[in-house]
Amino acid sequence: MPRTATPQSLSPSPAKLAIEISDLSVSFGEKEKTVRAIDRISLDIREGEFLTLIGHSGCGKSTLLRAIADIIQPSEGRVRVLGDHPSVARKARDFSMVFQQPALMPWATVLENVTLPFRVGGGRNAGRHAMEPMEALRLVELEAFRDARPAELSGGMRQRVSIARALVTRPRILLMDEPFSALDELVRDMLNIELRKIWKQSGVTIVFVTHSLQEAAFLSERVVAMGRRPSRIAGIVDIDLGAERDLKLKDEPALVGYVARLRALLDEG
Question: Structural domain of residue 123, as residue ranges?
Answer without folding.
Answer: 101-170
